[in-house]
Amino acid sequence: MNISLRQLLYFKALAEQRNFGRAAGVVHVSQPALSVQIREMEAALGGALVERQARDVVLTPFGRIILAHAEKVLDEMQALKEAARWKKGLSGQLRLGIIPTIAPYILPGALAQLRTRDIHLDVQVQEGKTARLLQVLMVGELDAAVVALPSGGLDVVERPLFEDRFLLAGSPQRLASMGARLDSLRPDEIGVTQLLLLEDGHCLTDQALEVCHRDRSAAQINMGASSLATLSRLVAAGFGLTLLPELAVREEAEDLALHRFAAPEPFRTIGLIRRSSSPDDGWFTELGDILAKVGEDVVQKVRHGGTAPEAA
């Protein structure tokens, strides 16, 4: 019996997609080529792996048993590849994911630090929302990801990097109209003024709703902006208030008035995650140290006078 890793990969894709055409697209081969490999695998194993229906593919009982073994073998091969790649620490190629509400503000500095440390390090960056990054991380398409913690992922190692506090942001006129109550304002006391947030799916929106004790269905909440750049421009134009993370202040606070909340200030924890099965001979710690320093430098400049001129 001779079963190849390629056949195991094709079979796993077929089991997940339940369609020969879609599975072929996932593994980047033609449908006939994938079908031939599955038939050869069935012949070698001596039994049918799938029931071929008109528009669907269903695993046979034997196929379910073989799928469990295939997944174990493929997981071990992925671990073997990673062990070989990380044998010299943070070197070779790094595939890093990062969420959009962090990426523009720390990536330039982080990439510069990584390049200074090792000019030959090949860094490939993928930007996406947390749910998507977790998905590609767990299938081995990413080595690590920068997200807000907790990530919500299973079988991941999380390392906190730095604290990113929220500031109340609005037009100068809107904040001025709130008067003396700003001095002791808490996020859940913002009131019925319209709160503008990023579109659903951004973890920053979830965090803002949580600290403001608001529900998605509240009439005064508008969740539609796809980026902090768009959100900040709408707020500067007087369409409402928002919570702006310190990371974004230097880039997005133009024409905005900012005000710090009364202590304890609300914040999000920025962290680095990897699969718990991924070997670590120090690369994860080294990468985390670099990202932590870059991020902490950004937020400390904001806390010590780096906010917009209108900040209160």
Account of the protein in words:
With 312 residues, this protein is α/β, with parallel strands linked by helices. It has 2 domains: 81 residues, Winged helix-like DNA-binding domain superfamily/Winged helix DNA-binding domain (Arc Repressor Mutant, subunit A, Orthogonal Bundle); 222 residues, D-Maltodextrin-Binding Protein, domain 2 (3-Layer(aba) Sandwich), CATH 3.40.190.290. It contains 11 helices and 11 strands. A hairpin with a 4-residue loop joins β1 and β2. α1 packs across α3, α5 packs across α11 and α10 crosses α11. The termini are far apart. The C terminus is likely disordered.
Summarize the structure.
The chain is α/β, with parallel strands linked by helices and 312 residues long. The protein is built from eleven helices and eleven strands. It has two domains: 5-85, Arc Repressor Mutant, subunit A, CATH 1.10.10; 91-312, D-Maltodextrin-Binding Protein, domain 2.
